[in-house]
Amino acid sequence: MPCRHPTTLPLLLVSMLGVGAVAGCESDNKFPPICPSLALLKDAADLSRYAGNGRDVSDLVVQARLTAVPAACSLADPTHVRAQLEVAMDLTRGPAAQGGRVTAPYFVGVTEGSRVLDEQDYQLVANFPSNIDQVHVTSDTIDLLLPISQQKSAATYQIFVGFRLSPEELANNRAHPSQ
Questions:
Q1: What is the spatial distance between Cα 142 and Cα 117, in angstroms, rounded to a whole number?
Q2: Which among 8, 17, 44, 154 counts the fewest CB atoms within 10 Å?
């Protein structure tokens, strides 16, 4: 039976090149598997989405911030490490939001060295009650199976998380970095 040791990686502790270790686990008196590293992309950790071409606060549809990526890993079988993670974020509904439902697009990517092996897009949908404009939400569990062998541990992989931004949104984040 695999064990889990959850690890929360606060956004403030991880820079674009900074990496936090994903927790390992131990069972059957074996060494815990070496796990992939996990990083939040600093330039993609914030999202400000506007309606139309305006950039005034009255044009704001949603503002979001990645806050943590609780993660755990275990040995799935002798040839795979299972990394399970969730993406937590704070969402603020802006005055230009239509209705009580807001969507925040994000991605999870897996690299090996400088090579991107996989990248998947996800959307976290938040439903706001009529009198609430801020919510904290967490995604469903994302399950990744990473191939390993005696010559290759899961430490050769990196998992990256960030919002799916337009080129303009990315440029804005770079011009106005968050604290």
A1: 16
A2: 17
Q: Residue 110 has which token pair?
A: 């897996």
Query: Domains (ranges, CATH) in the chain?
Result: 11-175 (2.60.40.150)
Cα–Cα distance measured from residue 47 to residue 66, given in angstroms and rounded to the nearest whole number = 9
Distance of alpha carbon 107 from alpha carbon 163, whole angstroms: 6
Q: What is the pLDDT of residues 99-144, one digit of tens each?
A: 889 999 999 999 999 999 999 999 999 999 888 999 999 999 999 9
Dist. CA 66–CA 42, nearest whole Å: 10
Q: What SS3 string covers 11-31?
A: HHHCCCCCCEECCCCCCCCCC
Calpha distance 52→164 (Å, rounded) = 18
What is the spatial distance between Cα 71 and Cα 66, in angstroms, rounded to a whole number?
Answer: 14
- The predicted model scores a pTM of 0.79
> At residue 69, what are phi and psi to the nearest 5 degrees?
-135, 85
